[in-house]
Design goal:
With 947 residues, the chain is an alpha/beta fold. The chain folds into 5 domains: 266 residues, 5'-nuclease (Rossmann fold, 3-Layer(aba) Sandwich), CATH 3.40.50.1010; 218 residues, 2-Layer Sandwich (Nucleotidyltransferase, domain 5), CATH 3.30.420.10; 77 residues, Taq DNA Polymerase, Chain T, domain 4 (Up-down Bundle); 151 residues, Alpha-Beta Plaits; 123 residues, DNA polymerase, domain 1 (Orthogonal Bundle). 47% of the residues lie in helices and 11% in strands. The strands form 6 sheets. Strands 1-7-6-5-2-3-4 form a 7-stranded mixed beta sheet. A 6-stranded mixed beta sheet has the order 8-11-10-9-12-13, sandwiched between helices. Strands 21-22-18-23-24 form a 5-stranded antiparallel beta sheet. A hairpin with a 5-residue loop joins strand 19 and strand 20. Helix 14 runs antiparallel to helix 15 and helix 23 packs across helix 36. The longest helix is centred in the C-terminal third of the chain and has 32 residues.
Length: 947
């Protein structure tokens, strides 16, 4: 292998990209991403990123992308079962191919394909033709078939590792020359492509045979010389193969065709400049902010304003949200481009200036306030200064910390002067992410009242599904203005300082600009919320929730660190024992965490069947799904690898990590609740993520035992029972589902009765488990394949169970089809409270079958069900928080985990608060089915007993 920095010969360079292989690789390597309209875009994003790398780093003379063509290829005539074991591509991958074609077209990249031939054959033909023209060829693929094409002027590129493979690299990896690569692969075989190979011959044995005999032909002519080269068993297998035609067929399947009939248009294929304007439009449409900014810089044109449309009704009816509703106007017309941006920012740094400033501030009924601090933890951060704005283009900064010699105000004096204004509920305060400012002021002894707006929340409601709602991005999106960057002030890396060490004049410009931008954004976006009918959701739910979430974050939750330390020690012992057992089963020591070494053990040493190849390297996959399939075949080693991985992940992610996150000042763990991440409106948790504490495995449950209430108090958990299924019953109107909830029956058992046509007493645990999986699966669009994987049944059985479900509950399928039709017409999905998310109309197919739904369609259904459940939970949190405060309860909320609230309560309040929370949660909304809340209490998050 050689590094990509190595200079090439001074010959024209031709880069040939196996596009289909790259798409598969990126689809599995890049985490799930979606455009603002719901279309999956993870592969497109990776594709675009690689295009930039080719253009800006490699700079080849020719860059050609080669695709497979649908339908039969000539190898199907050689072996009818060729590639029969390959699973069909994911629907969400297929959905991205047209977008990738648009991307390549806009970048003026040649795209080649040929019916009857695979991409590798076209690459082989182009590679041979290019070297004859005097070019260097670089083949970008993970397909090992292309190793046979390597020569003195042809190399392979591993794009992810950015390394080349040449003659020396093949010899190092396989122990053969490129000229022997076809025979090498023929001997080894390929279970995915259905190339038979010789039983028992892995890569090491194949290399040994070819080093001895040179080729398969010579091997077959000298079978009498096999003794001492391979084992008697493999000798017998080679002799059996020699008597048939499997090796000849395998070699035909492996060998690439270097003479595909096609025109070679080298002049037309030379690399050309991109269509920056077209790419800017595409990147904006797909939500690729960084790439859009790059194209905006290159094209020299501002981003076009989003198209305006008619306003929607302010309060649409819950059960007819799409009737006569036009697509909402989701963003204001951009204004104040950067060239015209004007801001006068003043430093209030003397007592006289502060007195005059406070007098002016008290006359305002609304202002934006932004804090600068030395850190992001409200409990430990020190105040550096306060920025305030109440008029676009004019803002003020009150510095309280700065470098030695700076003119500063005394912190206490500033806080005392601001307190009456900040604690006055009649004066409205807005900002970007105002929850942070609220928390800092709380820790400084000021209880901010009158929180009235947040530009981050406003943009989130208007553009749910966007990956970023931060201030810099919003300034660019709406005003074409580039904010002063934080790193410009404090630097990066080891040389980074705090804002308290930066010149006050510079901090004034930075901080005041932030307040100015937040003020302008709120002034611009809030009217758009009115136009879109989203203002009630903003004013009555999301903005009031800021204080509730700030309270949860500031309170935190206690952690039993000694218990976690003991658990860590126990897990270390378990891992050590498992490692020894795994090595014993393998017959040798190896690095369990290394996919390559594990693959060698599983597929070369133990000769277990390859399940699939990874998109990253083309090597046999050792992922969780593969190990589960191998474990199901009865081999103990894959099962123990799974167990080892699970314990190692729990130990590293939670058991060892959580004690390090205990706040030294409060001695509790403080997570951050995010309102603007999930497109459905669901809250997420980060730093640390306490919503993913495992609850299914026995060892995962143990971690919950470490979460404690205040000393001598009780931990109270209140959980909506099957809330998303209740939402489904509410929306679809199915009487059987509604009746099951009305009668407070076990809905999973009830569905099992219908699917299996048995009496309730005859429903087995297995039947109920299957019904439960299908129940939740239909909400999230689970496929027959997904159901089969979860339940360990065949794909046909999975299809059968899903079909049986819809046969028994036809109103569910009818509801989903009608919902998709409405989303396709309107271009957006909605929740019970009117929250919206845009979807690409062309991606929503009203007559698609359940099994044929794509990602956008699944997300459109999920938006209404899960999004409505999120609306419900937020209303419940507001109600519980208000009631606890109104009744002056000591009990307090600590966590929200999807459909669950976790509180701590003194013993004297336990029964009263349990009833209080149950009543408020159950009464937060009126649905067509009753809401049920399960309430339990105990000394920790694990040991809970029903109340």
């Amino acid at each position: 292998m050689t590094d990509t920095k190595q200079p090439l010969d001074r010959r024209p360079t031709v880069v040939l990209v196996d596009a289909h292989a790259l798409v598969h690789q990126l689809f599995h390597a890049v985490g799930q991403m979606n455009a603002p309209d719901g279309r999956p875009t993870n592969a497109v994003f990776g594709f675009a990123r690689d295009l930039f790398w080719f253009r800006d780093e490699m700079k080849p003379d020719y860059l050609i992308y080669v695709f497979d063509s649908p339908g039969r290829v000539f190898r199907d005539d050689i072996a009818p079962d060729y590639k029969a074991h390959r699973t069909p591509p994911d629907d969400d991958l297929i959905a991205q191919l047209p977008l990738i074609r648009q991307l390549l077209e806009a970048a003026h990249i040649p795209v080649l394909a040929k019916p009857g031939y695979e991409a590798d054959d076209i690459i082989a033909t182009l590679a041979r033709a290019a070297t004859k023209r005097g070019c260097d060829v670089i083949i970008c693929t993970s397909d090992k078939d292309c190793r046979q094409l390597i020569d003195d002027h042809t190399r392979m590129l591993n794009l992810r590792k950015q390394t080349y493979l040449d003659r020396a690299g093949i010899m190092e990896d396989w122990g053969v020359t490129p000229e022997q690569a076809v025979d090498f692969q023929t001997l080894v075989g390929d279970s995915v492509d259905n190339v038979k190979g010789i039983a028992g011959v892995g890569e090491k044995t194949a290399a040994k045979l070819l080093q001895k005999f040179g080729s398969i032909d010579n091997l077959l002519q000298n079978l009498d010389q096999l003794q001492g080269v391979v084992s008697p068993r493999i000798q017998q297998n080679i002799r059996e193969a020699a008597g048939g035609n499997a090796l000849q067929i395998g070699r035909q399947l492996v060998r690439l065709d270097t003479s595909v009939p096609m025109s070679l248009e080298w002049d037309a294929w030379q690399r050309k400049p991109w269509n920056s304007a077209r790419l800017l439009h595409l990147f904006q449409e797909w939500g690729f902010r960084r790439f859009a900014n790059a194209m905006r810089d290159e094209s020299g044109t501002p981003a076009p304003p989003p198209a305006a449309s008619k306003a929607s009704p302010k309060e649409p009816r819950q059960n007819d949200l799409f009737s006569e509703v036009a697509e909402p106007e989701i963003a204001p017309t951009p204004r104040s481009p950067s060239d015209d941006w004007h801001g006068e920012y003043h430093s209030v740094d003397t007592a006289a200036k502060l007195t005059k400033f406070i007098a002016d501030l008290k006359r305002q009924r609304r202002f934006a306030i932004d804090l600068e601090t030395t850190g992001l933890d409200p409990h430990t951060a020190e105040l550096v200064g306060v920025a305030i704005c109440w008029q676009a283009g004019s803002a003020y900064y009150l510095p309280v910390r700065g470098p030695a010699g700076s003119t500063l105000l005394e912190e206490k004096r500033v806080l005392d002067a601001l307190r009456p204004v900040l604690e006055d509920p009649a004066i409205q305060k807005v900002n970007q992410n105002i929850k942070f400012d609220f928390g800092v002021f709380r820790c400084l002894g000021i209880e901010v009242a009158g929180v009235a707006g947040d530009s981050m929340l406003a943009d989130y409601l208007l553009r749910a599904g966007e990956r970023s709602h931060n201030l810099d991005d919003l300034a660019q999106r709406y005003f074409h203005h580039q904010n002063i960057q934080f790193e410009e002030l404090v630097g990066k890396g080891k040389k980074q300082v705090t804002l308290a060490e930066v010149d006050v004049a510079k901090v004034t410009q930075y901080a005041a600009e932030d307040a100015d931008v937040a003020w302008r954004l709120c002034e611009a976006l809030e009217p758009e919320l009115n136009n879109a009918g989203l203002r009630p959701l903003y004013d009555d739910l999301e903005v009031p929730l800021v204080r509730v979430l700030a309270d949860l974050e500031l309170t935190g939750i206690s952690l039993d660190v000694p218990f976690l330390n003991r658990l860590s020690s126990e897990m270390a012992t378990q891992l050590d024992g498992l490692e020894k057992s795994i090595h014993r089963l393998a017959g040798r020591n190896f690095n369990i965490a290394s996919p390559k070494q594990l693959g060698d053990v599983l597929f070369n040493d133990l000769q277990l069947p390859i399940q699939r190849k990874t998109g990253l390297t083309g090597a046999a996959s050792t992922d969780q799904e593969t190990l589960e399939k191998l474990a199901a075949l009865g081999h103990e080693l894959p099962r123990q690898i799974i167990e080892h991985r699970q314990i190692a992940k729990l130990k590293g992610t939670y058991v060892d990590a959580l004690p390090l996150l205990v706040n030294p000042k409060t001695h509790r763990v403080h997570t951050r609740f995010n309102q603007t991440v999930a497109a459905t409106g669901r809250l997420s948790s980060s730093d640390p993520n306490l919503q993913n504490i495992p609850a299914r495995t026995e060892q995962g449950k143990q971690i919950r035992q470490a979460f404690l209430p205040q000393t001598d108090w009780t931990l109270l958990t209140c959980d909506y029972s099957q809330v998303e299924l209740r939402m489904l019953a509410h929306f679809c109107g199915d009487e059987s589902l509604r009746q099951a909830f009305a009668d407070d029956r076990d809905v999973h058992a009830a569905v099992a009765m219908e699917i299996f046509d048995v009496a309730e007493k005859d429903v087995t645990a297995t039947m109920r488990r299957l019904a439960k999986t299908v129940n939740f699966g239909v909400i999230y669009g689970i496929s027959a394949h997904g159901l089969s994987q979860r339940l360990g049944i065949s794909r046909d059985e999975g299809t059968k169970f899903i079909d049986q479900y819809f046969a028994k509950y036809p109103r569910v399928l009818e509801y989903q089809q009608n919902l998709l039709r409405k989303v396709g017409e309107a271009g957006f999905g909605t929740t019970i409270l009117g929250r919206r998310r845009r979807f690409d109309k062309s991606a929503i197919r009203p007559h698609s079958t359940y099994q044929g739904r794509n990602q956008a369609e699944r997300e459109a259904i999920n938006m209404e069900i899960q999004g409505s459940a999120a609306d419900l939970m937020k209303k419940a949190m507001l109600a519980v928080h208000e009631r606890l405060g109104r009744e002056n309860r000591q009990s307090r909320m600590l966590l929200t985990v999807h459909d669950e609230l976790v509180l701590e309560t003194p013993p004297k309040e336990l029964k009263t608060v349990a009833a209080l929370v149950r009543d408020e949660m159950a009464g937060a909304m009126q649905l067509a089915v009753p809401l049920k809340v399960d309430v339990s209490a105990g000394p920790n998050w694990l040991e809970q007993k029903d109340i």
